[in-house]
Structure formats: structure tokens, C-alpha cells
Amino acid sequence: MLTIARSLLDQVIAHARADHPDEACGVIAGPAGSDRPERVIPMTNAERSPTFYRFDSMEQLRVWREMDDRGEEPVVIYHSHTATPAYPSRTDVSYAMEPGAHYLLVSTRDPGRAEVRSFRIADGAVTEEDVVVSDGEGGGRPAARAALR
User: Fold this and answer.
1) What is the number of domains present in the chain?
2) pLDDT in tens, the chain (149 residues)
3) How many CB atoms lie within 10 A of CB 130?
4) What does each C-alpha distance from 41 to 29, 45, 82, 115, 124 come to in angstroms?
5) CATH code for the domain in which residue 72 is found
């Protein structure tokens, strides 16, 4: 299960909408070992593509070093799909290299709402998980397969 603050999720959705029609991508960092997303780090889609994303390698190196220096890790890896459902593609699965991370997908195919889903991806296996959106004060409500405005 992914528990995420509404403010963080809003930042991810805003990034996905801003980069549309290209896929957006980024990381939500949190304290190492905590499984607690705390800081959204929007990244550049080096492919600038509506159907594929790839972190810029130099930016990724800088971001991962910064997280390491701060005692953080990538708790969530996120990206958007612009014309398809929020479900990992075969390419997404093949490039999933953080087995402990939550993979959050946002579909922006419907301009009036964003479909948000989260997955664990390890050894090629995709497992969907519930998303609990909290108000930042510990409370939350399940929003699995949510269509959020």
C-alpha cells in the first residue's frame, strides 16, 4: 500500500498535466528505510515523448547523489501516460530498477481528471497496490484506481 499526502499527489498530477502531451517523470524521495514519500523531485523526460520516458542520465546521477547526501531514497518513481490507462507498459516493467519503490502512474488521457494507480514492480512481476491519500496529518482514504481532479 502506498500512503501519500494529498499535497504531494497534487504536485505529481500538476507535473503530469504541465508536460502533457509528453510523458512526465520524477521521483518522490523520503527518508531511507521509511517507505514515507516526502519530497517531489520533478525530472526531465530526456525522450520528450508522448509514449516513452527516460530520466536524463546526468540529472538522475545528480538527484540520486543528492538523495544519498540527505539520507533519502526514491520511495516513489512516477510517470504519466498521455493516451493510455495508468498501467505499466512492457517497457516500463523492463526499466523498473528500484524493487523497493512504488511505481506511481498518472494517466492524463482525460483532460478533466487524472487516473492514478500505484504498483510494485520486481523481477518483471507487476503487483497493483492500494493508494491511500492522506491530508498530511495521518488520516487518509483509499483511492485505488482513483480518478482525481
Assistant:
1) 1
2) 999 999 999 999 999 999 999 999 999 999 999 999 999 999 999 999 999 999 999 999 999 999 999 999 999 999 999 999 999 999 999 999 999 999 999 999 998 899 999 999 999 999 999 999 998 654 555 554 444 44
3) 13
4) 7, 13, 20, 20, 25
5) 3.40.140.10
